[in-house]
Design goal:
By secondary structure, this protein is α/β, with parallel strands linked by helices. The protein has a domain at about 270-400: Aspartate Aminotransferase, domain 1 (Alpha-Beta Complex), CATH 3.90.1150.10. Helices cover about 40% and strands about 15% of the residues. The protein has helices spanning about 15-20, 45-55, 70-85, 95-105, 120-130, 145-155, 175-185, 200, 235-250, 255-265, 270-285, 305-310, 330-340, 370-375, 390-400, and strands at about 90-95, 115, 140, 160-165, 190-195, 210-215, 230-235, 290-295, 320-325, 345, 355, 380-385. The chain has a seven-stranded mixed sheet with strand order 1-7-6-5-4-2-3, with helices on both faces. Helix 3 (about 70-85) runs parallel beside helix 10 and helix 4 (about 95-105) packs across helix 9 (about 235-250). The structure holds pyridoxal-5'-phosphate. Pyridoxal-5'-phosphate binds near residues 95, 123, 168, 195 and 229.
Length: about 400
């Protein structure tokens, strides 16, 4: 948990991606971030141990005690996350779900209500529909294309609004600034899952959102080799999560995965430029392909959220797109089984292009009626467009759709 230096973070995003959170190691002079692969830390004497504990209890980062309470490699990553997002502080977690669950559990108690967008990552939906009701917390899900839907669902016991934009897997776009205003009017906490967009494409804190959550497993790490999660926002919120729940629930990130994620984040802007460009080219290619019925990509003028996405995604429209092939489920499966360069796998945000069938994989745990109500057809295919040569990707999709 460290602090952003402030200023226009977007202007020097490329520099921050490389340098934020990383100083030469004071003990050895190592110029690159060391992996402090240690679960515990020693002190000169008991007085120093006591001072470290007291400072950590008071929310100050003065020294280290035990990696669940803080670790230098993880802290370097948290500083980079806060700097790139333009937030005051960040906390790293062992997975995106650890981050989301910890944040939600820290902000609601029995009897409270949540208003959430209907289209969310399936793990988040499952948490809201199956786990939190057992603790007395109910969620109302609304179609996120109209702000009035959120406004109408707010009750006196509502505590927070939760959105994901672009959403998984249909890339629906929600008006971030309008959600932030609505939450402020009703004194609710606003939370956004910014995993699909990343801080390069979309900057929710600058639009008034209170907390941004991530699966860093995806674009932030970027290489498909480390699970992780994060929450970023104002100090007061991060302190609430930190002191109340992060240590108690224990979903902390390992130093090695923090190191992999920080290493990946150094090239975040370069990778995102390429993900954005490749995805737009593929979306245009698929849209005019006779074997494709519909393409969902916010960068296409035909997408219902295109104008809004243009306003609130200044960096680009992202590397995720979904499409339905002509012929429905069977034709979709056939195309999926024929790809050669694209990798058939769940997850996203990897440098490699990943292709998946949400109804049988990522969204399988969502009951079929709920899936269809959310607009996720059985024939939908989701593509996480990588940074390969775009012509090679087009050739692969063309042969798979033939
Ligand atoms: C948008 C989004 N949020 C959160 C998660 C959960 O992250 P993790 O798998 O790192 O727990 C995912 C995973 O796919 C996701 O796509």
């Amino acid at each position: 948990m460290l602090y952003n230096t402030g200023g226009d973070t977007m202007k020097n995003f490329y520099t921050q991606a490389v340098h934020a959170g990383e100083q030469p190691d004071p003990s050895s002079g190592a110029a690159d971030l060391p992996i402090y692969q240690s679960s515990t830390f020693t002190h000169r004497d008991t007085e120093e141990s006591a001072a470290v504990v007291q400072a950590l209890q008071a929310g100050e980062r003065k020294g280290y005690l035990y990696t669940r309470w803080g670790n230098p490699t993880v802290q370097a990553l948290e500083e980079k996350l806060a700097a790139l997002e333009g937030g005051q502080a960040a906390l790293a977690f062992s997975s995106g779900m650890a981050a989301i669950a910890t944040v939600l559990l820290s902000l609601v108690k029995s009897g409270d209500k949540i208003v959430a967008a209907r289209q969310l990552y399936s793990g988040t939906s499952h948490l809201l529909t199956e786990r939190l009701p057992a603790l007395g917390v109910e969620t109302t899900f609304v179609a996120s294309d109209r702000i009035e839907n959120f406004a109408q669902a707010i009750r006196p016991t509502t505590k927070l609004i939760y959105i994901e934009t672009p959403s998984n897997p249909l890339l629906e776009i929600t008006d971030i600034q309008a959600i932030a205003r609505l939450a402020q009017e009703h004194q609710l906490v606003s939370i956004i899952d910014n995993t699909f967009a990343t801080p390069f494409n979309q900057r929710p804190l600058e639009l008034g959102i209170d907390l941004v959550v991530y699966s860093t497993t995806k674009y932030l790490c970027g290489h498909g080799d480390a699970m992780g999660g994060a929450v970023i926002g104002r100090q007061e919120f991060i302190d609430r999560v930190l002191t109340g729940f992060h240590r108690d629930l224990g979903g902390v990130l390992s130093p090695f995965n923090a190191w992999l994620t920080a290493r990946g984040m150094r090239t975040l802007p370069l990778r995102l430029e390429r993900h954005n460009a490749n995805a737009l080219t593929l979306a245009q290619f698929l849209q005019q392909h006779s074997g494709v019925r519909q393409v969902y990509y916010p960068g296409l003028p035909s997408h219902p959220g295109h104008e809004l996405a243009r306003r609130q995604m200044p960096g680009g429209f992202g590397g995720m797109l979904s499409f339905e092939v002509q012929g429905g489920l069977e034709a979709g499966k056939r195309a999926l089984n024929r790809v050669q360069l694209c990798t058939r796998a769940v997850s996203l945000g990897d440098v490699k292009t990943l292709i998946t069938h949400p109804a049988s994989t990522t969204h399988y745990i969502v009951p079929p009626e709920a899936r269809r109500a959310a607009g996720i057809s059985d024939g939908l295919i989701r593509l996480s467009v990588g940074i390969e040569d775009v012509q090679d990707l087009m050739d692969d999709l063309a042969q798979a759709l033939r």
